[in-house]
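Quick one: structure for this chain?
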Amino acid sequence: MAAESSAEDYPHEIDEQLTGFDSSVTSVKTMLEKLMSMPRNDLLQKLDPLDQAKLDLMSAYTLNSLFWMYLVTQGVNPREHGIKQELERIRTYMNRVKEITDKKKAARLDKNAAARFVRSALYDPDDKDSRKKNTRIHGYRYLTEHTLSDTCCI
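Got it. Here's what it folds into:
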């Protein structure tokens, strides 16, 4: 389309921008064709619920963004159109999904490992008087001295 126009139809300065825009539109079209060629049910069956939500939100945001661009090309101010509220609503849900994802990635306390660290830190090899010494820390009982015969049968 842009190749058919002569150089006199538009300023030469925007030729590079138009070429970039054309390649971006082609790329978006290719991605949408790929997404739409797969049956939605088949695609959703392969995903867990969180990924399904991400896919739905991504699809809704993409389509609404394309509609935003369409409104701009038609001379309509999208900031005064209902599409702005729809995009904000989708962004809100995207942030909720991001929070859930971040909570899953957050470090978790391994109580058994913490108990081993504390037990190891309290271990005193010079204290041979008592067979086992019980120590209570925050309501948990830790054994601070072990002999090899107490823990295994080597």
